[in-house]
Amino acid sequence: MSPALPDGDPAPPDGALPASAATGADARRFGVYLHVPFCAVRCGYCDFNTYTATELGGGASLAQYAATASEEIALADRVLQGAGVPRRPVATVFVGGGTPTLLPVDDLVRLLDGVRTTWGLMPGAEVTTEANPDSVTPQGLARLAAAGFTRVSFGMQSAVPHVLRTLERTHDPARVPDVVRWARDAGLRVSLDLIYGTPGESLDDWRRSVEVALATGVDHVSAYALVVEPGTRMAVQVRRGELTLPDDDDQAAKYELADDLLTAAGLRWYEVSNWARTPADASRHNLGYWRGDDWWGIGPGAHSHVGGVRWWNVKHPRAYADRLARGLSPAAGREIVAGGTATLERVMLGVRIAEGLPLQDVPAQSRAAVAGLVADGLVDGAAAVGADGPRRVLLTRRGRLLADTVVRALVG
C-alpha cells in the first residue's frame, strides 16, 4: 500500500496558484518530474505509488497514459501563466516511477516533446529516465538518446541473487553490465541505484554489489538504506518474524564500506546517499530538490513546488485521469511552505549536500550549537570557521550517518 497523501489545504479545482508563487521565479531553476505509475510486478519492500501494468483501464491504462499525462503538461502551463510565473526553459526532466521504460519508447519521447514544446529546454538540459535492467533494449536506449534523453538510472539494487529474491526483484543481475554498456554506447550517462540493509544481506554480499557496480565503469552511484514501510509485504514478513532487519551498526558499517569503495574508485559524495565521479555526473534534477528550486510533478501522486507553494496530486491513476478528462486539476491538496516549516526544510535539505549549508541559513538562536557538533565530530570544523570560504555546516562522514541528529540541533 502506498503512503497516504500529506495533510494540507484543499487545492482549488482549477489548480490556480497564488500570485506569490511568481516572486523571485527568474532566480530559480525549473524542473519537471514525470511519474509513470506502472511496474511489471510490485516488489515486497516498495511503497511507491505504483500499479501493475495490467490492472488499470481507460485513461489510466498504460496504453493511454502518455495522452493523459500530456493533458497535465498543458494544464501546468496555463496555471503557471495565470499566476504570473514567467515561462522558463526547463533545466531538468526526470521520468520516474514505477518503471518508466514499461511505456513504449514513442510514449516517453511524446512526453519529453510535450515538455520541450511547452516550455523549451535549457541548453545542456539534463533528461533522465529510471529503468529496470530487464526493461530496456539497445535499440530503445539509442532512440531515447536520439530524442533528447541524456541520462538513465538503473535499479540494480544488488548483485547477489538471494538478496534480490528477498527484495522480490525480478531482473537477472548478470544483465546489469550489459545494460550499462548499451546505455553508454548510446551516449547516455548512467547511474546505478543500490540498496543496503536487506534482511539476510551480509557485509560481503554488500561489498560484492558495490564492486560489481563499480566494475561497470559508471560515473554515478546511489546507495540507499532499506526502509521497511508500514503496509508493505516486507513489513508483514518482519512482523511475523519471517525476516529479521539488520541493526543500526550493520547499516552504518555498510554505508562506510560503500563510501570507502566508491571514494577509492574516484567517486565523491555530493549528497548523503549519492556519489559522482565529477560534478557533471551528479543528478542536477535531485540537486534542484535539495536546493529548493521549482518543479512541477506530472502524474498520479506526484508532488510539485513553485515559489513556496507545494501541492500533490490524487494518488490513484483512475482518479487522476478522470479529473483531467473533466478539465480539472488533479491536485488533491497543497500548503504554503513558510516560517518554521521553511526553515526546517532549508536546514534538513541543505546539510545533506557536500557544498554544505551556509551558516547564515541556520536560525540565529541555534548557531551556537555548531561548535558542539564540531566537537562531536559531526560537522567539519574548518568549514564551520570559514577556512576555505564562507562559513558553512558541512557534515563529516560520521555526521552523514547521524544527519537527523545534526538537523535537530540546528533547528532546536
Automatic annotation (TrEMBL):
- Coiled coil stretches, renumbered: none
Work out whether the entry's keyword set contains Metal-binding.
yes
Domain of life assignment: Bacteria
| Location(s), subcellular | Cytoplasm
Q: Does the keyword Nucleotidyltransferase apply?
A: no
Q: Which intervals hold domain Radical SAM core?
A: 24-268
Region Disordered: start-end pairs: 1-20
Per UniProt, the keywords (alphabetical) are: 4Fe-4S, Chaperone, Cytoplasm, Heme, Iron, Iron-sulfur, Metal-binding, S-adenosyl-L-methionine
A Pfam short name: Radical_SAM
PANTHER family in UniProt: COPROPORPHYRINIGEN III OXIDASE (PTHR13932), RADICAL S-ADENOSYL METHIONINE DOMAIN-CONTAINING PROTEIN 1, MITOCHONDRIAL (PTHR13932:SF5)
Q: What protein family does this chain belong to?
A: Belongs to the anaerobic coproporphyrinogen-III oxidase family. HemW subfamily.
The UniProt function text for this chain reads: Probably acts as a heme chaperone, transferring heme to an unknown acceptor. Binds one molecule of heme per monomer, possibly covalently. Binds 1 [4Fe-4S] cluster. The cluster is coordinated with 3 cysteines and an exchangeable S-adenosyl-L-methionine.
Q: What is this protein called?
A: Heme chaperone HemW
Q: Which organism is it from?
A: Cellulomonas xiejunii
What are the top taxonomic ranks of the organism?
A: Bacteria, Bacillati, Actinomycetota, Actinomycetes, Micrococcales
